Amino acid sequence: METPTGVDIAMFEILLHYEFMQRALVAGVIIGFISPIVGVFLVVRRLSLIADALSHVTLSGVAAGLLLQKYVSAFAMISPLYVGMVFSMVASVFVEQLRRLYHSYQELAIPVILSGGIGLGVVLISAADGFNVDVAGYLFGSILAVGKSEILAIVGAGLLVLGIVVLFYKELFALSFDEESAVYAGIPRHGINLAFSLAVALVITASIRVVGILLVSGLITLPVAASLQLANSFRQAFIYAVIFAQVSVLAGLVAAFYLDWASGGTIVLVAVFNLLCVMGIKRTVSWVRKRRGHLTT
């Protein structure tokens, strides 16, 4: 009789036998690393909804790319994700400009960009009278859709995001906790914020194929929400967030493969489950400690 360990190894070997699954796992590991790193800064700065806004703009870019593929032969071999990346990066610049324009109402930039992104995406999709590809794969993620060109884009985006965070870590840290003091100290707020917005746009575009446009913000924020329940320092928040993100991505991809579920929804559900488990364990531990305190007194 085969031992449980042998069964697990056999299942893992079957999983890695497929080239598309190998690409999905590589993409997932990269995304599970860069998404929470950006997410920690977004959550601390109370700007987590920017991910939603830029993801919907990316939808417009993907729709534009599909439209160009349909009617312009020169774009036949260009992935719509590259067009989505351009749209998202341009939108990140507009977000920063709107935040400067509405200095006292900076959060107004988010619904403006989000609404514009949804509207443009709907118009482009309707103008094309439908596409010959499965748009649901872009909306909800698909492990079958991660091709070699997407892997290259994800690796490139990951390196750029990591470079931005490492290069401007001290400035981002200062701006996240006390923006006014950081400005007085000579930190170029607008330039750093613009670079960070571009990093967020890259993360969103890189995550679309695995998680999907409608669910990408969940991978950015949910692991961070779980990590903040446990972390006692800013550095710990990064470490725990990356761990939770990797668990969510890898477990979600494996479950999606064997259960034939949408990868994006499965990953996000695992992330929600992780958050609920952390909250439940933390509350249980707190209750036990209080109970012991009452018994000792």
From TrEMBL:
Keyword Cell membrane in record: no
Compartments where found: Cell membrane; Membrane
SUPFAM superfamilies registered for this protein in UniProt: ABC transporter involved in vitamin B12 uptake, BtuC
Cellular component, GO, one term: ATP-binding cassette (ABC) transporter complex
Annotated transmembrane regions: 20-42, 49-68, 74-96, 108-131, 151-169, 181-204, 210-231, 238-258, 264-281
The keyword Transmembrane helix is assigned to this record: yes
UniProt-listed Pfam families: ABC-3
Protein's membrane topology: Multi-pass membrane protein
Keywords: Membrane, Transmembrane, Transmembrane helix, Transport
GO biological process: response to zinc ion; transmembrane transport
Similarity remark: Belongs to the ABC-3 integral membrane protein family.
PANTHER family membership: ABC-TRANSPORTER METAL-BINDING PROTEIN, METAL ABC TRANSPORTER PERMEASE
Name of the protein this chain belongs to: Zinc transport system permease protein
Lineage per the UniProt record: Bacteria, Bacillati, Bacillota, Bacilli, Bacillales
